[in-house]
Amino acid sequence: MSSEPLVLGFDTSAAHCAAALLRGPAVLASRFEETSRGQAERLMPILEDILEEAGVSWGALDAIGVGVGPGNFTGIRIAVSAARGLALGLQIPAVGVNGFEVRRAPGSLAAIPAPRDQVYAALPGEAPRLMPLLEATDAARVAGLTFAPEASPADLAQRIAELAAQRYPDTTKAPAPLYLRAADAAPARDLPPQLIDG
Question: Can the peptide bond before residue 192 be classed as cis, meaning omega within 30 degrees of 0?
Fold first, then answer.
């Protein structure tokens, strides 16, 4: 029996379902599906396929890693809810990993595409935020950093699982979504109808 931790990492923060199963540094199985809809329906079958391919059961997992955003609101909620539910049911830790940590590399500006010619970016010395693409491009140039925002890196789930494997022994809090913009949907501004006593 291997003493290396068995960690399942997954993400649905953009138009994809990404998942990877790692034992220590070894990738036992991984999947990546581009999908702009139906992530809630596809995620669990993908995770089950990965476990079956690796020949392990849910009960063998030591931890779960999940991408917490920023990105698509619905996608983030799907993955985070699944991770929290699985962690509770399996009685193992779930570790939230944000998209900047996954995309961080020496000499580059960690950034994620956002709607309306914007990006989520983590400028040096600043908290991550949503900003116009032009502003992020200029900031990266001034700082001498390469800048290539990518919504769905090929190794996304693998990196999430790797970071989760490093952190899970010290994890005490459940993963929470990282939202850096307001939701597109907003409550109706119309006043509710007036009730008339008859």
Answer: no
Residue 16 exposed, middle or buried by CB count within 10 Å (0-12, 13-18, 19+): buried
Enter the DSSP assignment of 117: T
CA nearest to 95, candidates 171, 157, 25: 171
Provide the CATH number for the domain around residue 73: 3.30.420.40
Check: CB of residue 58 under 8 Å from CB of residue 6: no
Domain containing 99 equals: 6-104+152-170
Task: Name the phi and psi angles at 66, rounded to 5.
Answer: -140, 140
Task: Let me know if residue 74 belongs to a domain.
Answer: yes
- Does the pTM exceed 0.70? yes
* Assigned domain for 30 exists: yes
* Structural domain total, the chain: 1
Contact of 171 with 163, CB cutoff 8 Å: no
| Interval 113-150: pLDDT, tens | 999 999 999 888 899 999 999 999 999 999 999 999 99
